[in-house]
Design goal:
There is one protein chain. By secondary structure, the chain is mainly alpha-helical. Helix 1 packs antiparallel against helix 2. It is elongated. The two termini are 32 Å apart.
């Protein structure tokens, strides 16, 4: 499992915001940090449960003796689906960890693609955002 994130962050006034936005307040930043830690804890719980379930699916896959093709296909589909969900949750957890690191080093709120501020309102709505809206839309069009 990933290392436990610390709660050491820069002061709110060190974080960049878009032109026209008010600077971060301590309460706003604490709200975002708390939400990120809740997301992280939830992801760890989900991953633990999914990995346990996936382990059971892998053990129960057997050699196919006594199963018809439909049963084997359904089991294979379920296993593939669980693997996809596990990988998606691991990606989400990695993104949360990365964002918590940005809070520690003072680069939270800076777009990973263009280097411009993401926008405080976007971050308050989606605290684990790592791209500004322009770069996110560009990425989704690809």
């Amino acid at each position: 499992m990933p290392k436990k994130a610390t709660k050491t962050v820069v002061s709110p006034d060190q974080l960049k915001v878009k032109d026209g936005e008010d600077p971060w307040t301590k309460d706003e930043l604490n709200e975002v940090i708390d939400e990120l830690h809740e997301m992280r804890a939830h992801s760890l719980e989900v991953l633990t449960a999914l990995e346990t379930e996936l382990s059971g699916l892998m053990k129960d896959s057997g050699d196919g003796a006594g199963q018809d093709q439909a049963d084997m296909g359904a089991t294979s589909f379920e296993r593939d689906h669980e693997l996809t969900v596990v990988n998606s949750e691991k990606d989400k957890l990695a993104q949360i960890e990365r964002v918590l690191g940005y809070l520690e080093d003072g680069t939270y709120g800076i777009c990973e693609s263009c280097g411009e501020p993401i926008g405080k309102m976007r971050l308050m709505a989606f605290p684990r955002a790592t791209l500004c809206m322009t770069c996110k839309q560009r990425e989704e069009r690809r």
